[in-house]
Amino acid sequence: MPLSPARVLAALNAVRPPDRTSPVIGRAVVVGGSVAGMLAARVLSDYAESVLVVDRDDLQVTGERPGVPQGTQLHALLPGGFLQLEHLFPGFREQAVAQGAIEAPPAARRSYLDGRRKVVVPDDADSLAGTRPLLEGLIRQRVLRLPNVKTVTARATGLVCDGAVVTGIRCDVGGMAGVESSDLVVDAMGRSSRLSDWLEQAGWERPALRRMTVNLNYATALFRRPETDPEATVVMALHTPETRSDVAGAAFFAVEDGRWMAMMAGYEDNRPGRTADDFRRRLREQFPPEFGEIAGHEMLGEVRTYRHADSRRRDFHALRRFPAGLVSVGDAVASFNPVYGQGITAAALHAACLSTYLREGPDPSLPARRFFDLQKVVVDVAWSMSTSADLAQPHVDGPYPRGYRLSSWFSRRIVEATVTDVSTARRFNDVVSLRVHPRSLATPAVVLGALRANLRAR
Ligand SMILES: Cc1cc2nc3c(=O)[nH]c(=O)nc-3n(C[C@H](O)[C@H](O)[C@H](O)COP(=O)(O)OP(=O)(O)OC[C@H]3O[C@@H](n4cnc5c(N)ncnc54)[C@H](O)[C@@H]3O)c2cc1C
């Protein structure tokens, strides 16, 4: 009997690298060397004789890069994602801290909902704060240290197929056309991946693309962080749509080199913080006092903005015809409203899907359906959480899933209870962190516990 989605998710969270490695494939080519591509390459290094990571950016260069335009914006690493990174890269925490990342145990994290400070869950998992280039760079360093992983700077331009099997990719290396042959191609090209076009050009179906328009406007700025500042290293504040604030949320994280990274987000025509003065004013006026304190510090550089139009997913699992020798991971499959911070953690779970699939010794002449079935569980969970929260925004007008009104009523009660009730907050945090299936929140015990907690709080 197939496992329930909840058990699949639990099993994926428990995946560890194998003790002994024995290649089940010859050469793997990963297209896209960002977070999802590098995590896939880490897993493939256990199962392939060699792994080549192809990226249009030079991955020997550290820092911000054009292939990842979101890299200037604040990136949260959810505790679930941090745990996955520690499993894939033993000693990741120490390595990260040595390079400037800041530890964020539960006691150092603060969260507000509509101005009310949430309870701390003392036994929650730890997290880590740092800029996106630092986090990505740490992962990259560890992967490129593996003896059977190499990178090349090239732009992938299409698939090479032999009958029903993908046997490589076409690429452009400094103006010269080339081919990289492969026993398994991994698409990790991010949300703008061209894989669907390439499949169609090669005579295959393109996966259905589902979109939910969110029209989110991000703004991020760096501030100097004096030693006397709040002890908290991660502070987040969300406004529910009922509060009708023009800023949907803000956060500030301690990051490397003695800095705070502060972020604000708004929807539709609300573009908070496009200028330095506006950024500071809104932090002071619309958020708890710590935000005003940060706003008073020296701003380092300019406010950087980013517009995120939609959440989107590509349903590879539903394709009737699909070639062997090909999988897709990370944002290329599903990318969500970034406010919920799921991307890196979801990519780590996609890597766990790949590990599970390869460990089972798949037949390389057949499509990787087992991989896509596992991945669907991860995508469904992250998608349902992100989109159901977005449907509560007045400007988001569907599509509404069946039973939406009732489920959203319960969700609001549970979210309210996370402000005062440790037990509800613990379970909710595990769900948000993609460690536990959202169905675990829909039990009578959890719902009644939340309702009682809300009554007590009133
Ligand atoms: C504003 C914003 C804020 C976010 N905040 C968070 C957060 O707080 N927490 C979190 O976990 N996630 C966050 N995310 C999501 C996170 O950035 C991604 O989920 C994460 O980077 C994984 O993406 P990826 O590796 O699949 O793709 P990407 O990071 O987009 O990388 C795609 C890679 O593919 C390469 N590439 C593309 N096309 C080609 C080609 N033809 N040939 C060769 N190379 C190619 C690119 O150069 C790039 O390196 C945020 C996203 C946005 C937009």
Secondary structure topology:
Elements: H1 5-13, E1 25-31, H2 35-47, E2 48-55, H3 79-88, H4 92-98, E3 102-104, E4 109-113, E5 116-117, E6 127-129, H5 132-144, E7 149-153, E8 155-162, E9 165-173, E10 176-181, E11 184-187, H6 195-201, E12 209-224, E13 234-238, E14 249-255, E15 259-267, H7 276-286, H8 289-295, E16 299-314, E17 326-328, E18 334-335, H9 343-359, H10 369-390, H11 404-417, H12 422-432, H13 444-457
Parallel strand pairs: 1-2, 1-11, 2-7, 4-13, 11-17
Antiparallel strand pairs: 3-6, 4-5, 8-9, 9-10, 12-15, 12-16, 13-14, 14-15, 16-18
The structure holds flavin-adenine dinucleotide.
Strand content: 25-35%
According to CATH, the homologous superfamily of the largest domain is: FAD/NAD(P)-binding domain
Number of domains: 3
Count of helices?
Answer: 13
Helix content: 25-40%
Task: Describe the oligomeric state of these chains in a short phrase.
Answer: single chain
Describe the structure.
Helix content is 34%, strand content 26%. It has helices spanning 5-13, 35-47, 79-88, 92-98, 132-144, 195-201, 276-286, 289-295, 343-359, 369-390, 404-417, 422-432, 444-457, and strands at residues 25-31, 48-55, 102-104, 109-113, 116-117, 127-129, 149-153, 155-162, 165-173, 176-181, 184-187, 209-224, 234-238, 249-255, 259-267, 299-314, 326-328, 334-335. The model has no long low-confidence stretch (mean pLDDT 95). The protein starts with a helix and ends with a helix. It contains 13 helices and 18 strands. With 458 residues, the protein is an alpha/beta fold. The longest helix is centred in the C-terminal third of the chain and has 22 residues, at 369-390. The protein folds into 3 domains: 5-93 and 134-210 and 311-389, 3-Layer(bba) Sandwich (FAD/NAD(P)-binding domain), CATH 3.50.50; 103-127 and 212-310, D-Amino Acid Oxidase, subunit A, domain 2 (D-Amino Acid Oxidase, Chain A, domain 2); 402-457, no CATH class. Helix 9 packs antiparallel against helix 10 (369-390). The strands form 4 sheets. An 8-stranded mixed sheet has the order 5-4-13-14-15-12-16-18, with helices on both faces. A 5-stranded parallel sheet has the order 7-2-1-11-17, with helices on one face. Strands 8-9-10 form a 3-stranded antiparallel sheet. It is globular and about 65 Å long. Strand 8 (155-162) and strand 9 (165-173) form a beta hairpin.
